[in-house]
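Milestone 3.1: sequence recovery, worked example.
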């Protein structure tokens, strides 16, 4: 049975009531305080202070401080006036129990309201965060699409300029050919108009020269051996073997890919201003690619980008140049450029065949990684799934795809 504290003191103003409750040497951590607008309780075993207030207070604006062996309560009055008594004179146990129960219900209702308000606020904050993330993703997608559109317009303009230049060159060649034909016709017409009469001596000399040439030709004809007999030489080519099974034959696509690769190797642009100061081997895209690969392996990513960029200027149809340059941009966190180069590589890696499966996988992974670094996890997951479709047995790809899917679903934290 608790010991009731009676030796408390209180003072008041028209707006505030001060109550001092001695704690009887009890430690602060063992003091339990409970209050409502009409009830105040301080329990510090084995002591108990309980006050049924005579007037209501504003519980939200009231405070309590514990220290130096005393608990000081500052209670804000709801009505500005002086109280005649601090507590009501109540010896009815049923009335006291009713006040306690009412105070407990009010406290429970207050806690429920605070919990609901906190949950509502948390939900609103999550909703705002989700909307913000979706807005950022939409802006990122719009930016990427704009980059693609700009590059497409730029490529179209370059193609039109090249066509115009080719037409001008063809017209100039046609004009030169026409002028040469006119000059030739003029010379022939002049030679026909000029006729020099021959003298008898000249005719005799010409006749002797003709007889001499005929005798020499007859002698040569006698000395020449008989012509060789004709024959046929058969040439056989080794048939190319494709890795695809016959039941899933994609020979036309394989042939198209090989032809495309051969054409890409021949499509070298030699009309660059940069070529004037380069050696013969530096004008070879394959040599530049090998040099870029070595620079990448040593961590010199900027120099590797320069090598790949020059190779691309020489030949814009080799997908490995774009894919490798995307890897360099990833290392330097040029994420938008990495996405752009990976997209160019995937555009060139068509048709999709077994011969370019590894290159397509690397391009998808590099673009997916750039998307994830930009926190565009939905686009990144699409690229990783595409890579996993090409190489379904790759355990690393399986683990990375699963991790990205967990981040999207909210079951895994986003990487810092």
């Amino acid at each position: 049975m608790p010991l009731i504290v009676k030796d408390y003191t209180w003072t008041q103003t028209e707006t505030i009531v001060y109550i001092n409750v001695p704690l009887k040497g009890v430690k602060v951590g063992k003091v339990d305080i409970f209050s409502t607008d009409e009830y105040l309780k301080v329990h510090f075993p084995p002591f108990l202070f309980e006050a049924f207030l005579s007037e209501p207070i504003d519980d939200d604006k009231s405070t309590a401080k514990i220290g130096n062996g005393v608990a000081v309560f500052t209670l804000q009055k709801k009505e500005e006036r002086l109280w005649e008594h601090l507590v009501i004179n109540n010896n009815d146990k049923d009335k006291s129990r009713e006040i306690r129960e009412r105070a407990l219900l009010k406290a429970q209702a207050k806690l429920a309201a605070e919990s609901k308000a906190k949950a509502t606020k948390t939900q609103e904050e999550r909703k705002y965060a989700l909307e913000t993330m979706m807005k950022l993703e939409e802006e990122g997608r719009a930016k990427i699409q704009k980059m693609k559109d700009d590059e497409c317009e730029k490529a179209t303009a370059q193609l039109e300029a090249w066509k115009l230049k080719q037409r001008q060159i063809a017209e100039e060649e046609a004009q030169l050919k026409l002028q040469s034909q006119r000059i030739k016709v003029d010379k022939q017409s002049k030679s026909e108009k000029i006729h020099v009469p021959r003298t008898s001596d000249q005719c005799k000399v010409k006749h002797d020269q003709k007889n001499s040439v005929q005798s020499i030709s007859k002698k040569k004809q006698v000395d020449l051996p008989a012509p060789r007999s004709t024959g046929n030489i058969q040439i056989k080519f080794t048939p190319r073997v494709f890795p695809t099974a016959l039941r899933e034959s994609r020979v036309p696509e394989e042939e198209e890919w090989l032809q495309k690769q051969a054409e890409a190797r021949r499509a070298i642009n030699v009309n660059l201003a940069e070529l004037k100061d380069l050696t013969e081997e530096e004008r070879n895209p394959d040599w530049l690619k090998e040099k870029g690969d070595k620079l990448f392996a040593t961590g010199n990513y900027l120099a590797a980008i320069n090598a790949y960029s020059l190779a691309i200027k020489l030949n814009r149809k080799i997908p490995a140049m774009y894919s490798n340059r995307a890897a360099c941009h990833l290392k330097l966190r040029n994420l938008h450029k990495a996405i752009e180069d990976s997209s160019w590589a995937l555009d060139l890696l068509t048709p999709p065949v077994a011969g370019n499966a590894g290159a397509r996988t690397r391009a998808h992974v590099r673009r997916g990684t750039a998307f994830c670094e930009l926190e565009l996890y939905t686009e990144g997951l699409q690229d990783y799934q595409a890579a996993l479709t090409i190489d379904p047995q790759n355990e690393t790809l399986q683990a990375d795809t699963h991790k990205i899917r967990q981040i999207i679903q909210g079951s895994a934290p986003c990487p810092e």
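The chain has a mean pLDDT of 81. The longest helix spans residues 93-193.
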